[in-house]
Amino acid sequence: MKLIAAMSGGVDSAVAAARAVEAGHEVIGVHLALAANPQKYRSGARGCCTIEDSHDARRAADVIGIPFYIWDMAEEFHDGVVEDFLAEYAAGRTPNPCLRCNEKIKFAAVLDRARAMGFDGVVTGHYARTQVSETGKTLHRAVDHSKDQSYVLSVLTVEQIEGAIFPLGDTTKVDIRLEAEKRGLAVAQKPDSHDICFVPSGDNAGWLRDRLGSEVGPIVDQDGIKIGEHKGAYTYTIGQRKGLGLTVPTADGSPRFVLKIEPVSNTVVVGAREDLAITTMRGERAVWCGPAVTDQVQQGFVQIRAHGAALPCTYYFDGTLLTATLEEPLLGLATGQAMVIYDGDRVVGSATISETE
Amino acid sequence: MSPAAFLAMSDQLQQLGNPSSLHTHGRATRKTLEDAREVIAQKIDCLASEVIFTASGTEANNIALKGLFWNGKKQGKNVVVISSIEHHAILDPAQWLKNHEGAEVIEVPVTSDGVVDLQFLGQLVSDRGSEIAVISIMHSNNETGVLQPLEDIVLIAGDIPVHTDAVQSFTKTPLSYKKSGVTALTLSAHKVGGPLGIGALILRRAFEIPALLHGGGQEREIRSGTLNAPSIVAFATAVKDSYDAQRVLGLRDSFISGVKGLIPDAYINGENSARLPGIVNVTFPGTQSDTLLLLLDSAHVSASTGSACSAGVHEASHVLLSMGHTEETAQSSLRFSFGAISTQADVDFVLSVLPDVISRGRAAHK
Q1: Within 10 Å of residue B107's Cβ, how many Cβ atoms?
Q2: Are residues A220 and A105 part of one domain?
Q3: Interface test with B, best of A26, A31, A50, A70 (most B CBs within 10 A)
Q4: Is the separation of the CB atoms in B200 and B187 below 8 Å?
Q5: What does the CA dihedral B308, B311, B312, B318 come to, rounded to 10 degrees?
Q6: Which of A37, A111, A241, B128 has the most other CB atoms within 10 Å of its CB?
């Protein structure tokens, strides 16, 4: 096949590209320039988006022996990922920008462009697997569960999965680093990235404050009684306990947690730990990574964080909302996050959480 | 690199002796080096003593622009005049002079055919001539090949020192330093079949300007650093190679008519102007040049886009923007170059892959 390898400058995408070449594909390396004004050097736990990273990607492509180009996707990234991130926070939700990037950039803008140019698909260094079944290509967890990235890929449609190649899904990260070393790739020991790539300081709250302003508002208890003040509602997360700065203690001295963020009234609602508990979640903007979910109730698992646990549940889709009901109550679930349904290690689909109860 | 230049360089690399040493080996290298200087001087029509070797065209441009500015500044002249289509090796030093030395930089615009606006320059010189420290306008543009009216520029400039970046023109089109009347002129070896990493500034005899590099003072105390004898010898050897401008022109024109036949809405930038024989800049509406470059490269054709920023992201060419292009059409343009060893078969091959490349390129940007 003729493939585009998306190369961030990290070890994973470098090995992925090398493996695709070895598998006999015709591969061209592409580094996505996602920042309009990239920083010169990498800092903190970010693994892409600086000029240094684009040089690392180029060097890896040269060592592998494939052509290398830089594609400017800064505008698409800003509109589809950064703006979405800000809008979601402004609306009191907690978004996952990596999901949006996979949905709108890597497997949409890049894959579309690649296909139009005559390529068959896009290779990335994601830890996930695909399998060919009777119903088509399906998406599965990686062998290395600690690195599994199927959660952030759960926004891919069947057609996008068709064009996605994940050569690392069957290997552990430790072995990928060893392999990179053997292949003479200088990025073998490059640190993993954890932070949000477009927040250079790693200080998400500060970054949001700079862009959304920091309008002081009330922190209230469940009866609506003001017990403190916050410095911008969107810098809080559901379930957050620390950093609330509350001066009125509870009667029994038990801690308070953020229960709700109300962006319109700029209010943060706090309460006891048990009030965080939810058993049902509903999500909008559902995407199926294989056969569509119906209104028939199914048994499966739901995951609500990138590296969270898969929780046993039943689920169904009523045509608008994807509903999952948990066997055990869960504490602290923010709307805006993705609920990803698994059938064993297969990704069934996902939706953006809009309601919990 | 020209085969003759390659051989000359290999030979010289095996010769012992710093050309500035006084012993026998040093004197032998010095002799060879001065022979080379004379060859280059003869080709550009200047005195041998007017050739100052540098490590690149960029360095020569920096010495000229900054040095001529500092000279002028001593007499209270603070204005640097360049054209809007200069190479970054002039644009960026000019920007540096503005940011660090308080210079006022004025860019002379170009017409839609890519030629500097002489009326603008004339008005500027008549209004503010006494404030202008230096005028630097390239001899021909590296992206479009459009030749600039240097004689007219020198005439308008009068007493104001003029520098010209002639990197793209040297050996490709008639060019005489002496007749041009410029004070300083930049050359680079790798554009004429010589090695990378060697250039020259031609600077009028007995004309002093401040140095950028200080040290042994090897080149008229304007440029210090051990002379790179192997590269200089190879530079001179390459200059002696013949360049059949008529033949290259024929290839270029055959390419242009082929492109127009295959891609009817494609157009040539600067087509109405006198141009270098070996460069053609084409706009393919509805495409993006970095996509075309990838597809052409896959088909074993090397073309160029205008320029890339430090992150490697393709940017709209400032040259084409100056000629009145929009960001979009500037981003849809490619430069094709033809050299002394290009053939009609090469041209035919490019034309054979072009229609498919353009249609895929258009599909990728719908």
Answers
A1: 18
A2: no
A3: A70
A4: yes
A5: -10
A6: A111
A91 shares a domain with A29: yes
| DSSP E strand boundaries for A124-255 | 128-133, 136-141, 164-165, 216-220, 226-231
**What are A346's two structure tokens?**
């297969």
Asked whether the beta carbons of B175 and B278 are under 8 A apart, the reply is no
pLDDT tens-digit series, residues A58-111: 999 999 999 999 998 989 999 999 999 999 988 888 889 989 999 999 999 999
Copy the structure tokens of residue A91.
């609306």
User: What are the pLDDT digits (tens) for A294-320?
Assistant: 999 999 999 999 889 999 999 999 999
Q: Which residues contact residue B135 at a Cβ distance below 8 angstroms, ignoring those fewer than 6 apart? A: B81, B82, B121, B153, B157, B160, B161, B162, B163
The CATH number of domain B3-240, selected from 3.40.190.10, 3.40.640.10, 2.130.10.10, 3.30.200.20: 3.40.640.10
Flag if B294 and A117 touch (Cβ within 8 Å): yes
Give the count of Cβ contacts less than 8 A between chain A and B. 49
A31 touches chain B (CB under 8 A): yes
Six-digit token string for B285: 């509406």
Q: Give the architecture-level CATH label for domain B245-365.
A: Alpha-Beta Complex (3.90)
Please calculate the CA angle A132-A134-A135 and round it to the nearest 5 degrees.
Answer: 90
